[in-house]
């Protein structure tokens, strides 16, 4: 009997179809897709679910404005979202819509079960409600409060910036408070339940310790929702309806629970940080009340923002994935999203960064390595990949070791969904392979017939490195790996990642006679301008503060200095080797740096609150002021200052490209 495969069940949030999805939404789905593809390459039985959350007042109002029924509206929106995922080659196994009949019936049964066992009670709700957020707020939770001349509260804004309105209506409430102690105990015994771990502390400090409030779970002010079977004047409010999708799609509360029995509990719920509370407080309590196991991990990722904050149509700073994919290809979009976003923290999209990663990472580093390798195998080996004989040059061992280290580092990071770090590891191998060409100088070996075997092995090493790169890239990029295999004349693109070895290079394959660039370089200025002009708002054009459309706004906040003043500052590059907290300080982090010297140096920096997951900075290259006079901070000596950027109260370290050597001087 064949051994039963290990299962892996991963979900995205179900998207609210009130508007077109942008690249921030797309990041969540692409990240989940990469995880699903990776686990399939581990020969696991994967189920990957995404979908749409289609009920609520906001949908009802949108449809009314368009003079169509809510169902007609969500049918079109769901079709658009499914097309987007198909166009981006998202490999989801299931797509759920909360208007699906099986889901609505299961939600009614779940609600009735809660009601029958006393978890839900009827009461009167009065509070501030945001239609856009589908969320209730107390007065103290509002980011801004409006008052009349007598000081009475008459409105306000939710933390999201959306307006709230006063709602008074009969409602059913879920008795969340009685489960608060159980949830705290669960957190303590399952420290990896919420990732990054800092999000768990947020839930405890902000919502549980102050006193967990009961949750309104029905509405009577609108009808577009799942009616309560025993009280049809009420419709089930968003969170019981939406959160239940993760189990109803598997057949929970249906006549066929085969999939539920197989895949539940989920391995990963992947959500944006704005809905972590609902997934890590309300959802676990609901599951516990149903007598079900909880998901293994809930990952709350950060936002992909713009320089001026969150993406917003009103700001004219929204970028859509199809705009980028149509012009630069699917792989460029997928690579950018999974490389630019640090795990758990916010990332910042800029047109310049997108084009830079396309030109330098994809075209220069990867594309050029492939082009050079194919051309040399054609020139020196008649287009045939020779046998791999390692150890014939002084540089073979380091290349092979880098490949082995890359495979191990990559697997560790993909298991924890740290895709940016997994990609960084792959690019270390790409960089090492490019360096290997310069070290072995095949053009010199080709001039000496006695070095023919060495030259052949050098070509094999390069092909082997590219084979490893292509296999590891398969969860991230959907097209480039196949193009690499095709150009190298290799056939084993479906090799299991768990079995990957550098030495297992198939020989005798014939490379293409003339390789085509898999990522053509683009004109930086033209493409940056193209992306800017395709941001929404102001007729698709961004407004600028200068009469010259290419002139940036001049910002000066300090007195001007002359060049001689600037020349006194010595800026250098270092690699972060270790980060730790400074005892008795709530601000300082201690950075141990490789600055190119024998002893390295230590710098203290007051950025602790901006990097709760500071361990993820290890291995990054940073800029620092090298000739700043050391000073004592909290009894410790700080030997310099790290360079960082600050805007709107947020501090971000200046992270430099990996290929810059530690100790390099900046100027």
Overview in brief:
This protein is of the alpha+beta class and about 675 residues long.
Report on this model:
The structure is a single chain. With 667 residues, the chain is an alpha+beta fold. The chain folds into 4 domains: 177 residues, 3-Layer(aba) Sandwich (Rossmann fold); 106 residues, Methionyl-trna Synthetase, domain 2, CATH 2.170.220; 146 residues, Orthogonal Bundle (Isoleucyl-tRNA Synthetase, Domain 1); 104 residues, Nucleic acid-binding proteins (OB fold (Dihydrolipoamide Acetyltransferase, E2P), Beta Barrel). The chain is 38% helix and 19% strand. The strands form 7 sheets. Strands 18, 19, 20, 21, 24, 27 and 28 form a 7-stranded antiparallel β-sheet that branches. The chain has a 6-stranded parallel β-sheet with strand order 3-2-1-14-15-9, sandwiched between helices. Strands 4, 5, 6, 7, 8 and 10 form a 6-stranded antiparallel β-sheet that branches. β14, α10 and β15 form a beta-alpha-beta unit. The longest helix has 31 residues. The N and C termini lie far apart (66 Å). About 3% of the residues have low confidence. Its EC number is 6.1.1.10. Is required not only for elongation of protein synthesis but also for the initiation of all mRNA translation through initiator tRNA(fMet) aminoacylation. This is Methionine--tRNA ligase.
């Amino acid at each position: 009997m064949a051994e039963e495969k290990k299962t892996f069940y991963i979900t995205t949030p179900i998207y609210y179809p009130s508007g077109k999805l942008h690249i921030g939404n797309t990041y969540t789905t692409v990240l989940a897709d990469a995880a699903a593809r990776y686990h399939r390459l581990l020969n696991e039985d994967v189920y990957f679910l995404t979908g749409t959350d289609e009920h609520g007042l906001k949908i009802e109002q949108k449809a009314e404005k368009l003079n169509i029924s809510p169902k007609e509206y969500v049918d079109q929106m769901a079709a658009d979202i499914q097309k987007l995922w198909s166009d981006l080659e998202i490999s989801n196994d299931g797509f759920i819509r909360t208007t699906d009949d099986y889901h609505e019936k299961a939600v009614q049964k779940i609600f009735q079960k809660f009601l029958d066992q006393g978890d839900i009670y009827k009461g009167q709700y009065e509070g501030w409600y945001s239609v856009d957020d589908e969320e209730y707020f107390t007065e103290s939770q509002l980011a801004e409060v409006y008052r009349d001349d007598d000081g009475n509260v008459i409105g306000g804004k939710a933390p999201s910036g959306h307006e709230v309105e006063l709602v008074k209506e009969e409602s059913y409430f879920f008795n969340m408070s009685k489960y608060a102690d159980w949830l705290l105990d669960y957190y303590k015994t399952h420290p990896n339940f919420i990732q990054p771990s800092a999000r768990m502390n947020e839930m405890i400090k902000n919502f549980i310790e102050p006193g967990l409030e009961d949750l309104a779970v029905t509405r009577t002010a609108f009808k577009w929702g799942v009616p309560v079977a025993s009280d049809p004047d009420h419709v089930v409010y968003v969170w019981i309806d939406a959160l239940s999708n993760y189990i109803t799609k598997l057949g929970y509360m249906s006549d066929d629970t085969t999939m539920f029995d197989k895949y539940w509990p989920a391995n990963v719920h992947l959500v944006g940080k704005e809905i972590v509370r609902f997934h890590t407080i309300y959802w676990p309590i609901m599951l516990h009340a149903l007598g079900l196991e909880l998901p293994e991990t809930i990952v709350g990722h950060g936002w992909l923002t713009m320089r001026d904050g969150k993406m917003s149509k009103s700001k004219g700073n929204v970028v859509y994935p199809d705009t980028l994919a149509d012009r630069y290809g699917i792989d460029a979009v997928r690579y950018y999203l999974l490389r630019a976003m640090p795990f758990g923290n916010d990332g910042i999209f800029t047109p310049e960064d997108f084009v830079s990663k396309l030109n330098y990472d994809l075209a220069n580093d990867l594309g050029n390595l492939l082009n050079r390798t194919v051309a040399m195998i054609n020139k020196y080996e008649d287009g045939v990949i020779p046998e791999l004989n390692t150890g014939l040059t002084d540089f073979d061992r380091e290349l092979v070791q880098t490949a082995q280290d890359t495979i191990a580092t990559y697997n560790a990071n993909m298991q924890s969904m740290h895709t940016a770090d997994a990609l960084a590891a792959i690019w270390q191998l790409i960089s090492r392979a490019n360096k290997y060409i310069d070290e072995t100088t095949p053009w010199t070996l080709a001039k000496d017939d006695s070095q023919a075997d060495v030259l052949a092995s050098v070509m094999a090493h390069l092909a082997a490195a590219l084979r490893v790169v292509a296999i590891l890239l398969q969860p991230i990029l959907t097209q480039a790996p196949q193009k690499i295999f095709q150009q190298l004349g290799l056939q084993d693109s479906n090799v299991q990642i768990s079995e990957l070895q550098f030495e297992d290079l198939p020989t005798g394959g014939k490379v293409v006679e003339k390789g085509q660039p898999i990522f053509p370089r683009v004109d930086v200025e033209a493409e940056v301008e193209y992306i800017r002009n395709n941001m929404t708002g102001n007729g698709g054009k961004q407004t600028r503060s200068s009469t010259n459309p290419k002139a940036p706004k001049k910002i000066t906040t300090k007195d001007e200095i002359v060049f001689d003043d600037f020349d006194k500052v010595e800026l250098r590059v270092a690699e972060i080797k270790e980060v730790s907290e400074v005892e008795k300080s709530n601000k300082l982090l201690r950075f141990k740096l490789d600055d190119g010297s024998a002893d390295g140096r230590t710098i203290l920096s007051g950025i602790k609150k901006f990097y709760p997951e500071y361990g993820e900075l290890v291995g990054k290259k940073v800029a620092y002021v090298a000739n700043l006079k050391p000073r004592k901070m909290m009894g410790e000596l700080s030997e310099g200052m790290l360079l960082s950027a600050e805007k709107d109260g947020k501090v971000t370290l200046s992270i430099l490209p990996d290929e810059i050597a530690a100790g390099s001087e900046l100027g």
